[in-house]
Amino acid sequence: MGHAYTPGLKVSPAADFVRHRLLPIRGEVLVRQGDTVEPDTVVARALLPGNVATLNLARQLGMAAADLGDVMLVKEGAEIEVGQPLAQSKGIFGMMKKTVESPTTGTLESISKVSGQALFREAPIPVDVKAYVGGTVSTIEDGYGVHVDSRGTMVQGIFGIGPECNGKLAMVGRGIDQPLLPSDILPEHRGAVIVGGSLAPMDALKAAIEVGVAAVVTGGIDAKDLTELLGFDLGVAITGNEDVGLTLMVTEGFGSLAMSKKTYELLAEREGLLASVSGATQIRAGVLRPEVLVPHPVTAVEHTEVDEGYMHIGSVVRIIRDPHFGELGKVVELPPEPAVLDTEAKVRILTVTLKGGERVTLPRANVELVDEQL
Amino acid sequence: MTETIRSILATDCGSTTTKAILIELTDTGYRLKVRGEAPTTVEKPFDDVTVGVLNAVTEVAEIAGRKIVGDDGRIIIPQQGDEGVDLYLSTSSAGGGLQMLCAGVVRSMTAESAERAALGAGAIVMDVICSNDKRQPHEQITRIRHLRPDMILLSGGVEGGTKSHVAELSELIAAADPKPRLGSSYELPVVYAGNSDARGAVEEALKEKTALEVVDNLRPTLDEENLDPARDKIHDLFMEHVMAQAPGYDKLKSWTSAPVMPTPGAVGAIIQTVASQRDISVIGVDIGGATTDVFSVFDNTFNRTVSANLGMSYSISNVMASAGIDNVMRWVPFDIDEVELRNRIKNKMVRPTTIPSVLRDLQVEQALAREALRLSLVQHKDFATELKGQRKTRDISEAFNQSGSGSTIVNMMTLDLIVGSGGVLSHAPRRVQAALMLIDSFEPMGVTQLAVDSIFMMPQLGVLASIHEQAATEVFERDCLIMLGTVIAPVGKAKRGKPLATVHLDLPDGKREVTISAGDLDLIPAATDTTVHCRIEPAKGVDVGAGPGMPLETDLAGGEAGLLIDGRGRPIQMPLPPDERVAAIKQWIKNLDLYPQRKA
User: Fold this and answer.
1) Are B243 and B95 in contact (CB under 8 A)?
2) So what's the ipTM on this one?
C-alpha cells in the first residue's frame, strides 16, 4: 500500500482562511460585502432578550390564576417601572384591597392563566460579533453575520483554552526546547500574543496573566498546571469559553515538548504583526483546533500533504506517542500487512527514519503529518 | 430474504475508529472473511464520516483481494461477479456524549425520576431544576440559559396531580429560551414526561420555542415509575441529534441496505439474543472511545445504560478525573510519576486515535479501562433497579426516603455470563488480559463465564440480525463470540493465605483438587469447547453461589484464557503497602502469564 490516511495539524506560511462570524440569534449586520475589517470590527449585533424576573400574581393576591384578568392594572406587553402597581384585588366590599407592584423595570412579558406567574423582561442585552481576524467581508448571511476571508500564516495547535483574542506577535523564551520563565514575560508584552518555549509552567502563566498578555502560544503544558489554571480537572477536550485571564494554545501536547521549529520560525517571521488567536478546542464530532492566524500579503497559497490527509513514502511525520513522542521522521515503509508490536498487539505499522538516522517501526495510528522538511 | 445473499459488508462508525467486516457465504455457511479499520473522519480536512468508511472498506478490499468500492467512490451493490457485495449495513456512534438538563416539581420525586431516566439513557445530567430547589426563578432561568444542554427532560406532577407547578417550570424554560450546545441551526429538543393534564400548558409555553416531544408520564403515581417511554425518546433524540452532527451521515444513510442503527442498540440486540437463546443472565459491556455502554439481562429484564463520558480516548481524561489517580494506579505493577501519568492521559485525550506501542503504556491503558468499566457498572446498577416488565413499583415509604430508590436487579452472584466488547477488550493482545480486566472491574461472584467479542463486531452483527438473522447467528457463533473461560470467585472473609474453598475438578487429563486461598489469583488451563465438571466446597460462611458454606456442583466452560481462580475477595482486597501491592500484582501477572515476561 502506497499511502494511508493520517490526520495532521496545519502549519502554513500561506494559507487561505475563511471565518464565519455569526450571531446566536437574528440581529443586524453592520458591514457590507467587500468591506475591509480589522479583528475588533463589530460586524453584527443583536439584542439578546433581557434577564427575566418572575412574580406569582395569583399567590400574591390570593386568587385563582384564571381570574387575574379582572384585576390587572397593566396589560401584557406593557412597559413597566420598578414599584409600579401591576394588579389590585377587589377586596371585601371595596375594602382591604391588595396591590402588587412590579419587582423590576422592563416589560410585562406574560401572565400565565394556569400558574398565575407573571414574567418580566428586563432591558435587552446587546451582543456584538467581531470580525476576529483582519480581512475582507466576502459573504453576508442576512440578519446573522458575515464570512471574513483572509490570507496569511496559519498555525493550528493541538489544544487550547480561552476565547478569541488578538495582539501583536512577540517571540519570547530561551529557545523552542526550554520552558518559559516568569522573567521571559515583560511589561511590554501587555496585550501581546507571546510565542515560545517547550512548556508554560504555572508561574509563567501567572506572570503572563499579571502582565495582561492576550495569548500564550507554547509547546506544551503540564496537565496539573492546566487543572490549577482552570480550577478543575478537564475530562473532555471541549473548550473555548474559559475565563482564566488569557488565551492559551499549545502546539505539541501535554508535558514539556519542544515547539515545532517550523511553527516557531513561521511566527517569528511575522513578529510584530497582528495575530488572531482562538483557544477553542473540540475533539469530538465537528472538530475544532485552536489556531493562530496572521494575515499578510500572500502571492500563492500553499497546498500540502496535511491538506490532503494522506501519507506517502517520503512524507514527514511527527510521532505523537511514546516512545519518541514529539520527534520528526521521514516515512520509509508503509507495509500493508499488520505487524506485532512489543505489546504483542497486531496492528498496521510504518517505518520512519528519525532525524538522527535511527529507523523505528511504529503503529500508523501514532504519527501525524506535518508540513516540515527534514 | 428471498434471494441468496452471497456477501455482506458491515461497518461500525465509532467515535475513534471505523470498523468494517466482510462476510461471505461459504460451503459451511456464513463466515467472517476479513476485517479492516481506519480512523473515523469527522475531523478536517475531510469532515465526512464516509471517508473513514471508505478507508476501512478499502483495507478490507485489499486484504480480501476483492474490489468493493467502485470507480465512482461508492460501494458496489449488488455483487457483480467477484466485485461488490450484496448487502451493506452500518452502525454509528460518532458524535460523543449527551448533556442534559432535567426538571421536575419535587426534587425527591418527579425530578429524581427524571434524573434517573436521563442517567439511564446515558446522559450527563448538568443540573436538575425543580420547584423546591431553593433557587429563585430568575436564578433558574439564568442557569438554564447558561448551560446550553443538548436536551431537556421535563417531568412533574403525578397523573391528576399538580398542573400549575409544571406550567411554571415550562414557563421558566420558555423564558430562558435555551439554545442547543452544538449549534443554533436547530431547535433544542425538550421531552415532556409529566402529568398528562398539564400537556396543554406545556405545549403552549414550549411548542413555538423548542422541539417539544411529549411522552407518557414517567411518574404516573407516587409509588410507580415508568421511565421507559422517556428513556426511549431520549435515546431516539440522542441518536438523531448526535448522529446528525456527524458530517457525512446523510450520505452514509443513502448507501446502506437498511437503516443505520445506533451502535448501542445493535449491541443490545445481540446481548438479548445470547440471554434468550441460552436462558441465562448476562452482562454485556461495550467500552468505546467516548462512552461505555453496559447491557444486562436478569430475570428476562433488559437494561441498558450509556456512561456518556467514560471511554478510552476522547473521555480518557474524564476516567482519570472520575476514578482518581489512586484507583487507577492500584492496578499498575510499577511506580510512575504522577505528572508524567497525567500528561500521558491528556495527550491521549487530544490525540485519541493513538495506541500503546510499549508494554507499560498498555498496562496503564488497561488500568484506566478497569476503572472506566467499574464506574460504568456502578451507574448501571443504579439504573437497573427493580423494574419488572420495564415498570417498577415503589413502596410509599421509599418515596419519602432519599435512599429508597429501589435495589438493583444486577446480582453478581447469579450472573452467568459477562461479554466484553470494545477495542481495549477485543484487541487485548492476550485474551487473558481481557478476562482479568472484566474480573477486576466487574468483580463477578461465585461462578461466572467470560467471553469477548473477538474482533469487535457485535455492533455489525446486531444490525445484520435485523435483516438476515441466519447470517448474523452463524457468524456470531463461529467467529464473533470468543469464550475466555470461567472465573470462580468465593465470597466471604478469610485472612490472607487462609482457604476460602476447595475445588474438585474433572479435567480432561484427570481429577485435580485446587484450594482457593484468600489473596490467590491463578489460572487452570481449560481449552475452548472443554467442559469441566466440578464440585466446589466453600469454607464456613463463604458463598460460591449455593449460599454461605453450601457446596456447589456445576460445569465450568473452558476458553482461550482457561479457568480463573480468584480468591482476592469482594470487593477485591489489594495489599495496602505499595511494595506489597506491586509484588502481588507481579505474582498474579506471572500466574496468569498475563504479559510478555521479558517486559513485565
Assistant:
1) yes
2) 0.86
